């Protein structure tokens, strides 16, 4: 097709829906602090990865953190907030507790322009938090207490909102808790029955290692749009050759958007391959949320009818902005940045 999108995707994008994208994921409060490599070593933290921890570990590590910034977070939530910043219509489903951090999450994500109506739990575990340690080389090391977010179940899934969203965007981390996995599967069924698209982010290479067979089946049978960084896609297909992984993924889903840090990204769809440069950044400060914001730009472009190359470029613009400062929420006006880029 001349516009760079398969017919089925074009049909879904031009349909009338209340929301452009609905994110379903772990509702987490991000706690971001600067740390030296020595701190990571002293606390046995695996640099550059996400590790799940329990409530006791979270409390102890939080007490050892330096000055921090707290905001609503979680991979899918960051993506939907970025989409909203671009002018898109976003909604989010995720579980919080009726505690202080739960209140911070709800207020913060709504202030970002995102619809969030999931009921808070009144008992059980506390609101999830992700302790993010950013080292001087801009790498982020994440220690995540999932708390009540891991109790998301099919009862929290609003079929009306899913049916009224052009794309539902699911984070791979959601595949860990069994009931959340069921919610994930139910949401995908509802979306496809309504003629909408289902997108998945692989989230983390260790997440892929844990669920490789499930993810391979998902990508081949149920996912329309796949997001992955280079490490994740190599892990999925158990190869060290990016081109080999690219050739495999193009057989299994309609669109794959693969990010490669400073090498930019590659977007594939059938016989199409688009190579997009990384957006120039004066200095990389913090890579937290880079993949999340790439997905935000890409999905915004797709739901507004952009071709795949433009979608990838929008992703690069958004990820370039987010790595220029601390935190996973934009400081610059993404809509303005995008408008300037496409005016040139």
List keywords for this structure.
344 residues; alpha/beta; UDP-N-acetylmuramoyl-L-alanine:D-glutamate ligase; 13 helices; 14 strands; disordered N terminus
Named at the architecture level, the CATH assignment is 3-Layer(aba) Sandwich
General shape: globular
**Residue-averaged pLDDT:** 90
Could you give the order of the helices and strands?
A: HEEHEHEHEHEEEHEHEHEHHEEEHHH
Identify the CATH class: Alpha Beta
Estimate percent helicity.
Answer: 40-55%
Main sheet: which strands, in order across?
6-5-1-9-10-11-12-13-14
* Full CATH superfamily name: Ribokinase
Number of strands: 14
The CATH topology is: UDP-N-acetylmuramoyl-L-alanine:D-glutamate ligase
Termini separation comes to 25 Å
List low-confidence stretches.
1-7
- Please, how many domains? 1
| Backbone structural class | alpha/beta
Describe the main β-sheet briefly. Answer: 9 strands, mixed
Strand content: 15-25%
Q: How many helices does DSSP assign?
A: 13
Radius of gyration: 18 Å
Summed up:
The chain has 344 residues and is α/β, with parallel strands linked by helices. The chain is built from 13 helices and 14 strands.
Structural overview:
- There is one protein chain.
- The protein has 344 residues and is α/β, with parallel strands linked by helices.
- It has one domain: Ribokinase (UDP-N-acetylmuramoyl-L-alanine:D-glutamate ligase).
- It is 41% helix and 21% strand.
- The protein is built from 13 helices and 14 strands.
- It has a nine-stranded mixed β-sheet with strand order 6-5-1-9-10-11-12-13-14.
- Helix 4 packs across helix 11 (290-303).
- The chain is globular.
- It starts with 6 loop residues before the first helix and ends with a helix.
- The model is unreliable at 1-7 (pLDDT under 50).
């Amino acid at each position: 097709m001349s516009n760079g999108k398969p017919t089925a995707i074009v049909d879904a994008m031009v349909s009338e829906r209340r929301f452009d994208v609905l994110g379903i994921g772990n509702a987490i409060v991000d706690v971001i602090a600067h740390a030296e490599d020595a701190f990571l070593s002293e606390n046995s933290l695996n640099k550059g990865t996400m590790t799940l921890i329990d409530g006791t570990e979270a409390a102890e590590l939080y007490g050892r953190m330096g000055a921090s910034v707290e905001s609503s977070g979680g991979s899918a939530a960051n993506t939907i907030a970025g989409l909203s910043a671009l002018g898109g219509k976003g909604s989010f489903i995720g579980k919080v507790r009726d505690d202080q951090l739960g209140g911070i999450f709800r207020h913060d994500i709504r202030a970002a322009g995102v619809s969030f109506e999931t009921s808070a739990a009144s008992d059980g575990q506390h609101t999830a938090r992700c302790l993010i340690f950013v080292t001087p080389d801009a790498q982020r090391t994440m220690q995540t207490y999932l708390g009540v977010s891991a109790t998301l179940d099919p009862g929290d899934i609003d079929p009306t909102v899913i049916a009224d969203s052009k794309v539902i965007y699911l984070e791979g981390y959601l595949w860990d808790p069994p009931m959340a996995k069921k919610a994930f599967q139910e949401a995908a069924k509802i979306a496809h029955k309504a003629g909408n698209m289902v997108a998945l982010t692989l989230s983390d290479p260790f997440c892929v290692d844990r669920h490789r067979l499930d993810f391979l089946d998902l990508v081949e049978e149920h996912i329309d749009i796949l997001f992955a960084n280079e490490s994740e896609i190599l892990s999925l297909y158990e190869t060290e050759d990016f081109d080999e992984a690219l050739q495999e993924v193009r057989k299994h889903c309609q669109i794959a958007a693969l990010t490669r840090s400073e090498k930019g990204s590659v977007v594939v769809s059938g016989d199409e391959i688009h190579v997009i440069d990384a957006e120039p950044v004066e200095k990389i400060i913090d890579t937290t949320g880079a993949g999340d914001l790439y997905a935000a730009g890409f999905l915004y472009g797709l739901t507004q009818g952009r071709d795949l190359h433009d979608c990838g470029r929008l992703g690069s613009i958004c990820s370039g902005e987010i790595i220029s400062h601390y935190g996973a929420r934009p400081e610059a006006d993404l809509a303005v940045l995008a408008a300037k880029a496409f005016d040139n």
